[in-house]
């Protein structure tokens, strides 16, 4: 069997942009939806059958997990761009050095974090003021979650490396395997069957551990069976020695990318604290809207990820003319996909929210009002995601971070806080549009006039080799 060559993955540096970007985006979007559905199904098993204390335990543990994943996500995005630029420049040697450096780095970090987590799980839960009735459950769940962390980090790394190489279908196939196993094993390990003991909440975490380890092993085996051109073989151990230039780029460029996620998540926490001023009904309504908005944002996030990989390869190939068109097509897709979802929400606002709130509660009409004022803003925010992804693909990572920080922390939150006492809760809902439009205008201005085209990921560009 011949090794899988560059031509075995869809070419991102030639051919029709719209068609290529659409079929590159679709598996990413499906994967995001799958991941959200997996979390929702697991929450149903725990919440409905193990009680409120167990659900509280998983919520506290998942908050830690979300922070850890967010912390390395930027580094994975940097690896995606480095691989994409290397392959666009037809420099397979550099691409392999990115893979080898990333393997060593991600594996070392994940093992260290897992060890620390196993030792300090109880202390972490205590620091989060986990309720006493949920504390032992949270510790049990957290320890198994930390055991699964190396598999989760490795899966994230491989998924992003494959996206950088122009392949989004393979990660989706094995994500489907992981999600399917997780959903099937949850009730089996929670309640037990035959020789399998009932493990309660620990069983839910164990199901995730088994699903992720099996899926990762299958993915690695598949890549070696197919002789993927980025696989490292005997005699190529030199690639596993961290390359200082690549490692520096991953940290210096990936750090700001990860900070963007932290900026977003912290701003949402601050917004929830403002919403809580208006009572439990408004908070419940806002919580229901958040569930819906998670799905509304998925198309823009998926398009952004696809645009980043596609732009990176074209930047590596010095095809800046295509980069400009990729940005335009990405924005068009955002308007079509996110705009389409928002239109459906406006047409079926009541029906969409009734999935999360009972018909008879007062929170339902409040949620409809919130949705009517906020939903459109995600279309504007999607433009920011797309343009930021293009700029990051060149190595310009600070400007998108600063723009997001200004829009969320210097415009949206101050706007909401300053006017909430005179406008009421409507000030909070208007602030979403004000922040999103501000971010979009700043991103468009920097994309048009900023020096992002002169940015680079590596300080010293490497000569291309095939």
From TrEMBL:
InterPro entries: MATE_fam, MdtK-like, Membrane_Transporter-Flippase. It is a multi-pass membrane protein. One of its GO terms (molecular function) is xenobiotic transmembrane transporter activity. Pfam families: MatE. It is found in: Cell inner membrane. Keywords: Cell membrane, Membrane, Transmembrane, Transmembrane helix, Transport. Coiled coil: none annotated. The chain crosses the membrane at residues 21-44, 64-87, 99-120, 140-162, 174-193, 199-225, 257-275, 295-317, 329-348, 368-388, 395-415, 427-447. One of its GO terms (cellular component) is plasma membrane. Its main location: membrane. This is Putative MATE family efflux protein. The lineage of its organism: Bacteria, Pseudomonadati, Pseudomonadota, Betaproteobacteria, Burkholderiales.
């Amino acid at each position: 069997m011949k090794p899988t060559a560059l031509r075995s993955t869809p070419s991102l540096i030639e051919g029709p942009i719209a068609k290529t970007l659409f079929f590159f985006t679709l598996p990413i979007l499906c994967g995001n939806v799958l991941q959200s559905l997996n979390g929702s199904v697991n929450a149903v098993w725990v919440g409905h059958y193990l009680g409120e204390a167990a659900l509280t335990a998983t919520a506290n543990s998942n908050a830690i997990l979300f922070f850890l994943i967010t912390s390395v996500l930027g580094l994975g995005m940097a690896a995606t761009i480095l691989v994409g630029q290397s392959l666009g420049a037809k420099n397979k040697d550099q691409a392999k050095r990115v893979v080898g450096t990333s393997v060593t780095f991600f594996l070392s970090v994940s093992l260290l974090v897992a060890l620390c987590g196993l030792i300090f799980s109880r202390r972490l839960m205590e620091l989060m003021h986990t309720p006493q009735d949920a504390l032992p459950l949270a510790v049990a769940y957290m320890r198994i979650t930390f055991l699964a962390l190396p598999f989760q980090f490795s899966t994230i790394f491989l998924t992003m490396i494959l996206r950088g190489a122009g392949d989004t279908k393979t990660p989706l196939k094995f994500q489907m395997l992981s999600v399917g196993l997780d959903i099937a094993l949850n009730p089996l390990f929670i309640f037990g069957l035959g020789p399998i003991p009932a493990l309660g909440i620990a069983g839910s975490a164990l199901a995730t551990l088994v699903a992720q380890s099996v899926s990762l092993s299958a993915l690695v085996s598949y890549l070696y069976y197919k002789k993927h051109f980025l696989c490292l073989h005997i005699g190529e151990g030199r690639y596993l020695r961290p390359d200082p230039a690549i490692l520096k780029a991953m940290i210096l460029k990936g750090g700001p990318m990860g900070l963007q996620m932290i900026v977003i998540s912290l701003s949402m926490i601050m917004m929830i604290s403002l919403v809580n001023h208006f009572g439990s009904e408004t908070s419940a309504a806002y919580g229901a809207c958040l569930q819906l908005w998670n799905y509304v944002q998925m198309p823009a996030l998926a398009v952004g990820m696809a645009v980043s990989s596609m732009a990176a390869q074209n930047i590596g190939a010095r095809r800046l003319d295509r980069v400009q068109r990729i940005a335009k097509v990405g924005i068009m897709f955002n308007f079509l996909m996110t705009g389409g979802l928002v239109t459906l929400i406006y047409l079926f606002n009541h029906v969409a929210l009734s999935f999360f709130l009972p018909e008879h509660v007062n929170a339902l009409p409040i949620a409809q009002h919130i949705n009517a004022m906020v939903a459109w803003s995600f279309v504007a925010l999607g433009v920011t995601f797309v343009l930021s992804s293009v700029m990051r693909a060149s190595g310009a990572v600070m400007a998108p971070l600063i723009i997001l920080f200004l829009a969320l922390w210097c415009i949206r939150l101050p706007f909401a806080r300053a006017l909430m006492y005179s406008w009421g809760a409507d000030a909070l809902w208007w602030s979403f549009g004000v922040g999103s439009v501000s971010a979009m205008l700043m991103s468009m201005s920097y994309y048009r006039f900023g020096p992002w085209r002169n940015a680079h990921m590596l300080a010293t560009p490497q000569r291309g080799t095939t």
